[in-house]
Every structure is written in C-alpha cells, then in structure tokens.
Amino acid sequence: MAAPTAYIVDAVRTAGGKRGGKLAGWHPTDMGGAVLDALVDRTGIDPAAVDDVIMGCVSQGGEQALHVGRNAVLSSKLPASVPAVTIDRQCGSSQQAMQFAAQAVMSGTQDVVIAAGVESMTRVPMGSTVAFYAEKGMGTPKSPRQEERYPGIQFSQFIGAELIARKHGFSKDQLDQFALESHRRGAAATERGDFGEEIIGLEIETPEGTQLHTVDEGIRFDATLEGIQSVKLLAPDGVITAANASQICDGSSGVLIVSEAALKQHGLTPIGRIHNLTVTAGDPVIMLEEPLFATDKALKRAGLAIDDIDLFEVNEAFAPVPLAWLKHTDADPDRLNVNGGAIALGHPLGASGTKLMATLIHALRKRGKKYGLQTMCEGGGIANVTIVEAL
C-alpha cells in the first residue's frame, strides 16, 4: 500500500516591502489574513473545510505577539472555528509550517491545512523581542548552562556567515558578484512576468492614490557591481556587507496542502506533491552551513541525485551560504535561485519558507520541469529541506 501523499494546491506570496517601505502601513496579522483569503479565493475551497493554519513568525512581539497565527485567521474570511498555531524555527519557520502541514496530511490526521508565514520587519524590528528585556536588565537567551558548554561564544548569524566565507575561501568579490546576479535574475523575472502566478496584490496608499503592491520593492533594476562593491563592510576584517546579504523585508506567504481524499471531495487540482521532508541540526557557531548536510540527507532519503533536481531554492541569507551549498553539492548554478533570491527580493524571516516554495513550484511549472529542492539556513545551526514534484 502506497504511503499517503501531501499535495500542494496553491502557493502565494505578497511582493516584498522594504523596511519603512510600501508595506509599512500593513498590520502583520492583516498581511497574514490576506494570504489566507487568497488561498481560499483562488482554490475555491470552503473556508470552513480548513482543518488548521500553521503560521511561521520569528519576532513574536508587539503586533506579532499573542499568537499571530490565530490573529491572522481572525483577520481573514476563515470562520472562527478554524484553529491555528504559531511556530518559530527562525528563518525556516514557514518552511517548517509547511512540513508540519504535510506531515498532518500524510498521517491522516487532517485533510486540509494552510501553512503560512508573516513578518513585518518594519513594525516589529529584528531582535526587538530580545532588546526589550536586555534594556531592562532581564537577561538574554543564552543561559548559564549554555555558557558552560560554549564559553565566551556569541551565537550570531553574521559571525556564522563570515566563518563560512573563511572556511570555504570566498572573497568579497565573489560574494558581490553573486549579489549582482541575484538582482539581475530578480529584475529579469519581474520583467518577464514570472512572479505573476505567485504574487497577490496588497492595496497601499500612495501620493497618487490607492494602488496594488505587486513588485518586490528591494530589487535594484539598475544594480551594478561597482555599486555593490562600494557598500561598507560590516566588520573591518570581514567580507560581508549589507549588499551581499539578504534585505530586511515585510511580507507574508502561504501554501494550501491537502490529502488525496480532499482533492476529490472538494474538486481541487494539485500543482505539486511533496516527496521529502527533512530537518537536521549541526554546529550552532558556524550555524548557517547546515543546509549542505541536510541536502545530502534529503537526497539520500528520497533516492535522488543532485542532477535529478531541476531547480533549487537556497535562501540567500548571506551570499556565502548558497555559494558554499553549490561548492558542496556540485549542483548546476544555472538551476539555483533562477528568479533571484533574498539578496534582491528580501527575506521576511518567518514568511520566507512558504515564500520560497511559492517561487519554486510556480517556476517549475512555468518551465515544464519536475523536481525542486528548497533549503534554508536557520538560527542555532538548523536546516530544513523540502523536495517537491511539480504537477
């Protein structure tokens, strides 16, 4: 008897907004609610049929506090009878939401689950939930027992990115070249209309009146290598700059995942099926290197080779991460982040997982390709890998 299958019926995202930019006026729970509404509207499913909403969010404070997932449901057209849960696996939060949703469907526990993510990095700044307590002298997340195990070590994604660049021998010029290519690919994809199937428009107020925000605000359509190279280093002896790292971003995204029974019951047409769900953890100091080893495990479990995968989405948290992944896997760089990545499009933390899946599944279908692999580095040395087949 074949194992139960988890199907993707639709995957959507908002266009990214820069910090203080076009989405700054949107409350995060309303952004999340807009994605839930879009999935219901586009698929035609009865809102009451949704068994659960799993919402990823990293900075769960301020407007994203008190269970942003449930609040997004209450900001949407879903009935109040639809439950929700909010999860934090750092940058992989909504990718993990997607994997939990798939596991629920594959176990037979639930039939219709929305996995989503939201992050307003304008309204709830990165690190603000830690800074609030630190300012009051109430301590930090690193405990005395952690200090015993990792004495004097600061857990930092920025430090991890520098360590990866040093370990794998990447120069600043290589990182800057990669960043330029991200902008070029993002701009080209936008101009071709390749994001048309995945982006849902959000109304914003401008001096010219109400408009729909449908273009990723962070893309530099006129990016040059000279401009990227001119951005100052974040550490005097390092190689990381704001230009070769992901952009702070506001946004939301979501994926509707269902069982085979739900496909028939609700007359739904799937656009993809999930083949592998992997999560691993490793060194919390270099931290961002784990996608390399998680990919190895996922491919082995799926019985696939790297060349069997048609397209890859490797989150561009910092340029050394996808570059180290390419070096480790010997994957074809022309298949990686074909529509640009977080350096150009932005990285809305808790929303990035399902955001990448929206881009990946629609890119596969547009190109007539079959298999896609998505992976993301996460705080604490964790990584998720999801392998999907486009239908």
Automatic annotation (TrEMBL):
CDD domains: thiolase. Keywords: Acyltransferase, Transferase. Belongs to the thiolase-like superfamily. Thiolase family. The keyword Transmembrane does not apply. The lineage of its organism: Bacteria, Pseudomonadati, Pseudomonadota, Alphaproteobacteria, Sphingomonadales. Residues 269-389 form the Thiolase C-terminal domain. It is an enzyme of class 2 (transferase). InterPro entries: Thiolase, Thiolase-like, Thiolase_C, Thiolase_CS, Thiolase_N. Its EC number is 2.3.1.16. It comes from Stakelama tenebrarum. The active site is at residues 91, 347, 377. Pfam families: Thiolase_C, Thiolase_N. It comes from the Bacteria. Residues 7-260 form the Thiolase N-terminal domain. This is Acetyl-CoA C-acyltransferase. GO terms for molecular function: acetyl-CoA C-acyltransferase activity.
